[in-house]
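2024-03-11 09:14:02 DEBUG pipeline.ingest accepted 1 chain
2024-03-11 09:14:02 DEBUG pipeline.ingest length=235
2024-03-11 09:14:03 DEBUG pipeline.predict start
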Amino acid sequence: MANTKIRAVFFDFMGTCLDWHSGAIKVLPKPISESDRSKLALEWRQDYFDANTARLAANEPPENIDLTLRKTLDALLEKHTEHKHLFDERTKHRCVVAWHSMPAWPEVPQAIEQLKAAGYEVFVFANGTTRLQLDLCKSSGLTFNMLFSSELLGVYKPAPKSYSKTLELVNVQPEESVMVAAHTNDVRGAREAGMKTVYIHRWTDDINEDMEVIKKENDFFLENMRSLAEVIGRL
């Protein structure tokens, strides 16, 4: 039975629900070793986060994620010139487009369906474009009540306005909502907004964060989503 106080569960998407890493390394040029493709993917992902943070700090509006990914990929290859010759225009385009088709982590579909069955409303609340989120729902098979992108909201997470606007749109109070994310900035912003938080530890994300610190900051810290419905029921 759903927690009678919690009404809405908001999910970050890429990383939290989706295994972006396996999708990214598949599309990077095969002459690069798998271990180096993994390192490149992780670095590219972090560079993308850093680019968003810089735009938010400069009070700039959200940029189309495809453009941000392309810019950061070009910059990444300037740091790794040994691989640059493997990336012609077609390959770069294929690498960027691949972010529109990522699989869900294995336990996520059941976790989301359990929440729906318990009576919770479930939402995507993530940076990126609405087109990206629609494509990712298709590739992952995941369904939600609504998709909230930074493009739609006009602001990146973790800006306070992103949380307040999203909650206002669904007419839910902060204390009636939960943010589920694999990113420290997302859950910290949610807590500041008055929301409950569940941190999902993914080896692909927050690679430079101290997990012992994160464990103390959130209502729950989980290694996967298998018990997500149960712990939200206890909030």
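2024-03-11 09:14:41 DEBUG pipeline.report The chain is about 50% helix and 10% strand.
2024-03-11 09:14:41 DEBUG pipeline.predict end
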